[in-house]
């Protein structure tokens, strides 16, 4: 009798668990956050279906940045002097042999910080540094704080307002050094400060500093003379100068993207070239890639580490094999977008959402999707207004929803 009751209890327990166990299935979710070139809105789109999810008002036209985890997206509204954060609604939990995915509605996180001319956003090691050009001040927070809706920040001040950048690097902050004689010009170096704001060591020279990225365990700043490459030292950041090779033509990188999966940096180099940079190479650290016309925008592929993508003013998207250092495929997507005119004119931007490469077409009001495997045009997503800046968040994981 006792054995019968125990067996019945076990069966009842397993039956009760069955719906939960059955609900553990593989799920993929990708979302596109798109800002408008003229209107103060951010639109969220389901990248898999093309359906709109939500449109959020902001205080000014925004550039968009995502966190490394993809759990948060930041709208940097330079003209409005505001940085706003959103919860993407997609998060992952690492369980070693697999990862769980949770999907919910995107929403404002409640984080908002104001100041004069916010510009560069940099996340490093979970810390987020927001540089405000009009004050020469960096405001630092972390993603956990942001998603709690807490707008508390700590500040590091430089000697003058300037178009700068900062990186929170463990117990230190790397912050741009303004040109003291001409603060309106680009910074001249990187200063390292500790938690108290006191300078550590000498200023590291980096004339015309503009452009920053991380790849693997390395951080890089672009200078007129080459790159400052930052790695973890015994007592803090170790900074070395990587000069441009003598064989390179005259020019410099002013925008950097960091490789994912492969350690490299991709930068612009003049209007119609890009440069692949391997900071660990004993020789040939810089490889130039000629483009058919002038470059508009580029992005690395976080899913397929071998590839990056470059959009050029003739309306073509190019697949760049970063190992071979060559363009391998091209697809025509838009009408020409000339690089003549103002630097801030509406022009296409590129993002990667899983198996799709997505390109904004602000003058047509659409997003073009390209199949990353075949590199053929896959479709279009209509978006009101002039869709401009874009970031993608998402991925695949195991879902334990018990619907």
TrEMBL record:
Keywords from the named record: Signal
Domain of life of the organism encoding this protein: Bacteria
Signal peptide: 1-24
Name under which the protein is recorded: Uncharacterized protein
Upper classification of the organism: Bacteria, Pseudomonadati, Pseudomonadota, Alphaproteobacteria, Hyphomicrobiales
């Amino acid at each position: 009798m006792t054995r019968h009751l125990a067996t019945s209890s076990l069966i009842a327990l397993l039956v009760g668990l069955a719906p939960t166990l059955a609900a553990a299935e593989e799920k993929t979710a990708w979302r596109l956050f798109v800002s408008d070139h003229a209107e103060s809105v951010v639109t969220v789109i389901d990248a898999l279906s093309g359906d709109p999810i939500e449109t959020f008002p902001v205080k000014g036209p925004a550039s968009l940045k995502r966190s490394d985890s993809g759990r948060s997206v930041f709208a940097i509204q330079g003209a409005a002097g505001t940085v706003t954060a959103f919860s993407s609604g997609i998060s992952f939990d690492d369980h070693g042999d697999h990862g769980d995915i949770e999907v919910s509605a995107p929403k404002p996180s409640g984080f908002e910080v104001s100041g004069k001319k916010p510009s560069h956003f940099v996340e490093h090691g979970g810390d987020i540094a927001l540089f405000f050009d009009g004050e020469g001040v960096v405001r630092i927070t972390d993603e956990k704080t942001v998603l709690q809706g807490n707008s508390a920040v700590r500040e590091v001040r430089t000697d003058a307002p300037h178009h700068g950048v900062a990186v929170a690097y463990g117990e230190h902050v790397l912050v741009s050094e303004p040109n003291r004689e001409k603060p309106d010009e680009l910074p001249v170096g990187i200063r390292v400060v500790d938690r108290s704001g006191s300078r550590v060591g000498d200023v590291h020279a980096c004339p015309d500093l503009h452009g920053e990225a991380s790849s693997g365990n390395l951080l890089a700043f672009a200078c007129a003379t080459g790159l400052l490459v930052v790695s973890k030292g015994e007592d803090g950041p170790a900074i070395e100068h990587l000069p441009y090779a003598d064989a390179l033509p005259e020019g410099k990188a002013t925008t950097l993207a960091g490789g994912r999966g492969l350690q490299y940096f991709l930068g612009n180099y003049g209007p119609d070239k890009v440069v692949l940079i391997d900071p660990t190479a004993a020789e040939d650290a810089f490889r130039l890639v000629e483009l058919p016309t002038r470059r508009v925008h580029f992005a690395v592929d976080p899913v397929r580490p071998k590839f990056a993508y470059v959009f050029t003013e003739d309306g073509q998207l190019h697949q760049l094999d970063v190992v071979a250092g060559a363009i391998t495929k091209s697809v025509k997507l838009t009408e020409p977008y000339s690089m003549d005119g103002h630097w801030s004119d509406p022009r296409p931007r590129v993002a990667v959402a899983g198996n799709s490469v997505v390109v904004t077409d602000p003058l047509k009001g659409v997003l073009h999707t390209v199949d990353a495997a075949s590199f053929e045009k896959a479709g279009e997503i209509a978006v009101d207004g002039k869709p401009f800046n874009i970031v993608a968040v998402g991925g695949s994981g195991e879902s334990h929803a018990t619907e």
